[in-house]
Specification:
10 strands, Protocatechuate 4,5-dioxygenase, Chain B, alpha/beta, two-stranded antiparallel sheet, globular
Length: 289
């Protein structure tokens, strides 16, 4: 059967994609950001997942105010990079594991999660930036080394799902994947955040201490962390900090006991913090050793 072996939490700051696309990653401003992903790229080569289940949020590229699903699962054969106002990112088209995606859709709906099934969808920086930082430079004529199943979560228009709902969805995704008969190595990504606010009086807010305790508890106290109310994200992490509920989907899909194998945190990148963590199921890590 398919098996989730690890989880990746990662900010999806759009300026990171721009830095890679315009080849300015060696500038002094960007060097500390990308140095933190060097170990991650080595890890990805060793992990070598067959499929990445990638949780992200759309930034009004595939959806707008006329239709914003809470959870939208990509079931199309492929997903092209979206034009976010300056042309699509020059990265590969995302190829789906369509059979597994359809299986997950059926499993989640029968498990009483109301999933919107997307048979056509473009993907924006929320999905492509995490792939870029984990795999390195890939051009439009290349291919991503793994198939990718996208799950878009609404954190743009209130009400966003709670961390607890996202954590339980992660558990349901795990049940779905582990009931898929093909022997596949799956890594799940939770993206977004960390603390940041883009507008009004608190624009530029970054809360290092809150970000750090979030990463600590993600490993050690995921159930307690998942019960963090929306108002705390807004107060402590800024208006856009609520994106971190998506990391709970990733954590809910892993074992209770995990091993943190890498962490990276840097301020600033654009007007936000960059947060990143890699978690492996401890029993899988021991078995591999």
């Amino acid at each position: 059967m398919a098996h989730i072996t690890a989880g990746v939490g990662c900010s999806h700051v759009p300026a990171i994609g721009v830095a890679m696309d315009t080849q300015i990653t060696e500038q002094p401003y960007w060097v500390p950001v990308f140095e933190g992903f060097e170990a991650s790229r080595d890890w990805m080569k060793k992990a070598n997942p067959d499929v990445i289940f990638l949780v992200y949020n759309d930034h009004c590229s595939a959806f707008d105010a006329s239709c914003i699903p809470t959870f939208a699962l990509g079931c199309a054969p492929e997903f092209k990079p979206a034009d976010e106002g300056w042309g699509p990112r020059p990265v590969p088209v995302v190829k789906n594991h369509q059979k597994m995606a359809s299986h997950i859709a059926q499993s989640l709906i029968l498990d009483e999660f109301d999933i919107t099934i997307m048979n056509e969808m473009e993907v924006d920086h929320g999905l492509t930036v995490p792939l870029s930082v984990m795999y390195g430079d890939k051009g439009p004529d290349d291919e991503w080394p793994a198939l990718v199943i996208p799950l878009a979560v609404n954190v743009v228009q209130y009400p966003a799902p709670t961390g607890n709902r996202c954590f339980n969805l992660g558990r349901a995704i795990r049940r779905a994947i582990e009931s898929y008969e093909e022997d596949l190595n799956v890594v799940i990504f939770g993206t977004g955040g960390m603390s940041h606010q883009l507008q009004y009086k608190r624009a530029g807010l970054i809360n290092r201490e809150w970000d750090k305790q979030f990463l600590d508890r993600l490993t050690l106290d995921p159930v307690g962390l998942s019960k963090t109310p929306h108002v705390e994200y807004l107060r402590e992490a800024g208006l856009e900090g609520v994106e971190m509920v998506m990391w709970h989907v990733m954590r809910g899909a892993l074992d209770e006991e995990v091993t943190e194998v890498h962490r990276h945190y840097h301020v600033p990148a654009s007007n936000t913090a960059v947060g990143h963590i890699i978690l492996e199921n401890t029993k899988d890590r021991i078995a591999a050793e």
